[in-house]
Structures
1.
Amino acid sequence: MSELRSGNETLLHGPRVVLAEDSVLLREGIAALLEKHGCVIVGQASNPDELLLKVRSYEPDVAIIDVRMPPTHTDEGLRAAHEIQAHYPEVGVLVLSQYVEPTYAVELLAEDAAGVGYLLKDRVNDVVEFVSAVRRVADGGTAFDPRVVSELVGRRNREGVLDLLAARELEVLALMAEGRSNQAISNQLYMSARALERHVTSIFTKLRLPPDSEHNRRVLAVLAFLHD
């Protein structure tokens, strides 16, 4: 993150963003919101072809993509997100959807959960949380809408690997899947940092995720959770 000083003022420049949304009003509104909170909009697109061109040209930190875009308004945005993941793995992908579609979230995680997010569009109204999600995905973290995570929990295979986890550990892992930090999880579950760390360590142990310098155990645990 670069830093620019002007007099006594310090301005922090956030992630570079390409924004793909066919509704001009919504696109401009999201762009203005993000710029107000320090993000840098390097490109805007109204269809998948424009999106891929802007990603290729400007190499953003994150692409924010509407699931339904022209020409058919079905899953063009999702397919463009897959293409970005395949050809520009350093670019985070944050998909926005009007409806809860858990299968789309799972599709995004076909290879890796790093730098991936899936939010409902009404989440944009929670400005602080939305900007935080954009920054997390740009930094290689995750950001999944709580309603999508809840749906996935409800559909979880009872014979899956997550049956090894206690109820409290599942709560912790669900919040990790939303992309929340340890501090945020501690606050929400009203537990101490030390107690949370014990739960997180237990989760990693039960999911057989030993320390590994080449893999982020937190990301792998989220991947196991959303795929189960």
2.
Amino acid sequence: MLEARAAVRGLKEYHPPLGGRVGLRLDFNENTVGCSPRVLERLRQLQFEPLARYPERESVERQIAAHLGVDGAGLLLTNGVDEAIHLVCETYLEPGDQVLIVVPTFSMYEIYAAATGAQVITIPAGAEFRYPTDEVLARISSRVRLIAIANPNNPTGAVVARSDLLRILRAAPDAAVLVDEAYFDFYGESLLAEVERSPNLFVARTFSKAYGLAGLRIGVLVGSAAQMAMVRRVSSPYNVNAVALACLPEALADQEYVRQYVAQVRQGREWLEQELRSLRLHFWPSQANFVLVRIGEGHDTFVSALRERGILVRDRSRDPGCDGCVRISVGLGGQTEQLIVALREAILARTQLWVQG
């Protein structure tokens, strides 16, 4: 009887709660108001011809490379950051290799790495979710072929200091070091400038968050030209669809739209964190477009209470070290005001239940 590979049969399944997402969606860290109007106009102008032929990504890749200030030979457009992670794993991992990840973090690092038959070594984050650089350095050996780091991290919003990232890069010259900068726009610090000096460094970005293109599934992977030539060998030549390729230049050209959105999200993040302090809820300062909050006992009831009030948030209590935690994405002004009203009501309802109990 036909069976999947043993590595695949043993994989953890990832089940995003996509059904019935009605209301203010603060559960997936999406852009809460959508993409630039220029993108919508480009969509309206699309004719049959681009959709009837295979997509050509090279010209758009040149534009992205110029925007990022990197060598075009070292840049590949991908089907979201997910594919970028997958390609790095497929290029460099074999059964018996080791992969280092600090948890909690984005689930797909472990899933894609484990699917190759590699051994995934999870290292718990330090106190207050600080990145345990010394512990990571201590685990580096000749068997380690990939170190995946989300910076800022999901679901905590914590960041790794540039100096620590460089220490890891230098300590693991035979391993691919993937720095996932999906939330770069809300943080502002990047390791892209190090790519040309560090042949084992890969940097991934997405246009799903600040740019509001999650539905088009488009991201970018940057590395040295020599290493990216290897990555391209395992990539489909048609991995990014024609609609995404048509819209991305318009999204990129409207930097004022992105700047305004990011500035408003940062303001909303500060407002939300201030409210969480006043409610005496423990949270972790975030450099992304979300905040992780420890609700504690009754966190599932809290999530349901917000849903009843038209707001979706993400229960992350099953993540390592996140018992009783909920992740809340940040929207714009009126959306944050709506969230805070619902937050106060949900906390009050929970308190009353405790008193009655």
3.
Amino acid sequence: MTLRVAVLSVHTCPLAALGGKETGGMNVYVRETARELGRMGVHVDVFTRSQNPVIPRVVEMGDGVRVIHLPAGPETPMPREMVHQHLARFVEGVEAHRRAEGLAYDILHAHYWLSGVAGLRLRDLWGGVPLIQMFHTLGRLKNSAAQAPAEVEPALRIAEEGRIVRLADRIVASSVVERAHLVWYYGARADRIAVIPCGVDTELFRPMSQATARDLLELPPEPLLLHVGRLQPIKGLQTLLDAMTLLDGDARLLIVGGDQDEPDDGHAARLRRRVAALGLAERVRFLGPQAQQRLPLLYAAADATVMPSYYESFGMVALEAMACASPVVASRVGGLATTVRDGLTGYLVPEGDPAALAERVRALLADPAERSRLGREAVRWAAEHRWPCVAETVCCLYSELQPAASQHLARARCRP
């Protein structure tokens, strides 16, 4: 029996370009785990809401893996809470696709709270097919770390997350910290939560000579810091900019991420004005979103990758940087507290503390031997989080709910 899995990624497509407001680590997670499961012989259909009528309804993403775009409301981007109003139509689309192809799914795997709402409805339609839920971020935690009113999650999300926690068959947490948050803030049962860390593509993200990377990017030899992520208040870039004013004047910062079309009153625009007000215009560059194939060069070129976030459920950027031998300096929050091994693959500092961040970065920039040591250990740590290993662990979880999944483990590629 071949296992067939319906993956739900309602609000964002795994094929979408990274770096924008609605795209990031979750897109990578869904795409890479689906592809690896496909290589193991699992049939995976990823269902997502169509945001562009020009995109084909069905896109092949690998052996036995498809992305299926379903109309559910206007086929344009929209705020996530508005997507909730169209979930009934989304569920109808999934069911219509299943009927048209005569399929029967063995597992439902939902990503993010909107997908969990759809997953609960589909489980009822399909006679109790097991539902596995991964939240990626948690509304209550985001609210506790919100830096602006626009970042406060609606009560609807909090209520729906609580309902999903109570009713899902299993929950996947990306770290022991997230598992503790689910238990403490949502009353989840610890025995129903599987901790499966996120992964990294070590064929794409791998060490290379810093000099070579800088030559290819045409970068000068000055000390260089890198930040990769969406330009949102919760990412803590204001803290990093304040820290830059405390560093020596030759240190430079590259900022990767953001939307192509930024509103004049958006957070990215405010960050640019902040750079000018702090007198950092010559030392800070906004590169905008970058192709994933270009990111390894940027990680390798940097002396350190800095993640001053107020909240991260895991911190996939940290893992990508470490795979490229880039030491990481990050806030001691959420999943970053376990993704970055303090003193071994990088350093953790208090969130929202420019002085502490600047002190740690300054010491690291002044010590090439320490950067080299951290980089070597970071590469070894990242190798334990390759996507084939993540997919194998996911398939093991499937086998707890559908024993037929165990036959696919023989094709896992986790072992080097």
